[in-house]
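Budget justification note: compute hours in this period were largely spent on complex prediction jobs such as the one shown. Inputs:
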Amino acid sequence: MLPDNLKEHATAAAVEAFDATAVVSAKFDRDELTIEIAPEKIVSVCGFLKYDLGFVRLSTITGVDWYPAEPRFEVVYHLHSLDRNERLRLKCRLPGGDPEIDSVTEVWRGANWFERETFDLFGVRFRNHPDLRRIMLPDDWEGHPLRKDYNVMGDRG
Amino acid sequence: MSDTITTPIPESMAVEATGAKPRTLSLNMGPQHPSTHGVLRLELELDGETIVKCRPDIGYLHTGIEKEFEVKTYQQAVTLTDRIDYLAPLSNNLCYCLAVEKLLGLEIPPLAQWTRVMLTELTRLNSHLVWLGTHAIDIGAMSVFLYCFREREDILRIFEMYSGQRMMTSYFRIGGLALEPPRGWQQRVRTFIDAFPSKVDEYEELLTNNRIWVGRTRGIGIMSMEDMLDWGVTGPMLRAGGLKWDTRKSQPYSSYDKFDFEIPTQTEGDVYARYQVRIEEMRQSARIVKQALEGMPGGRWTADAPHVVLPDREKMKTQMEALIYHFKIVTEGFRVPAGEVYQAIESPRGEVGYYVVSDGTTHAYRVHVRGPSFANLGAVPRMVEGTLIADVIASIGSMDFVLGDCDR
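Corresponding output:
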């Protein structure tokens, strides 16, 4: 559901018109539009944004861990449209136990490494990813360092 | 490899043709290869001299900087941004400061904004000079390197004059600049920038019409515009393919809209075009520096925000308020209102973006750095697969990546 102040916002309204069930919430803060998308709809919404609204660039994908809150993880997508000269942030919330979401590599091939990085550092799994391996850390590394409950104290932790 | 042997070989050494498929050869390039500029490993699968498959392996320089952001106060974390892209520290300083300032809603005085523009453009020159020198060495033109590092030295001296540091400057702080611009900076910058365009002519004389240089770079490493956008490539590579997009123009920050400069583009999208774009960018950056030098506004170099900016020494000794603010900022840091911002700027390599999430405390809850080198390197397989191994060096050199920026 869009809040009332965003009903007039062209991009937000277009996403709502495309699939109202995909929009969980939205906000416009400090000149930046954020739309929270239902995780199972992320690929179709991204496809719509890329091919119909001109968000041809995927700037980055990353995660935020809100431990111990639930749903614990946020996967954050930053998109950019060159024609509209506009940036957009999409968010999906995922539960703490076995977080999984569909990969958007079929929409932007550049998502490949960003998703691998999010997998490596947060432990979020991306379904249908062509090559989901660790990217920053060695393959035999244990744990996901950017999680808030990751032990940073070594043996003392 | 063909199945029939055409050259006569001694009978004892002849191998029977089995009709099996030609075998490919796996070759490791790096991580300690001089032309990988840092520690990058490319796993290449070769069929003869043609690359069938390329798998970049990164992460050798991963130091967990994003994790460290979470245990430093906002102001302390500026020093981390230097170390991300060590050839463009000030661009990263700027992007991080802009992001946090946006969260705080700070107004930055004109002197600080203009100084920021001038120094980030000098950083662009610095970075492009290192790129040009090392790229030329990779391809075999040794002397260009010596010319480029001569000018780079002057730029590093200017940085040292401002901040006391040549590389890890940390000169931009949340709320303005770390120190007042040093006495006599105008003279130093003027001497450098007046002479610089003729230095660019010198590099061009060595390379632009050099037959070997042109032969090694023309028609090499081409990627289509569609591919580049799809893979998230940014910066001079896009502009060399004909896209006139530069964040400094399209979403101006730090008063870039007050400067007069062009966005150079080419259409070929090959290694040579990237060289031409960067050379022209150097000339444009020199123009910006000159404008900043001539029109530098006066006034304060820090914002009027006592809860963020450390007070002057003098005030600290005479005013109780200033002393309290100083104590609070130093011991605990300042609180940043909860929220999130994504700030993107045009670094020498493309789009640098800082995504900062605040939960209202004195430490960032989460900082994500979108390094242009990371995205650009992801596109390496697309660029080199199907080309010759001899051209890999030229191709990846033209991307101008910094592994620190990639691995973070």
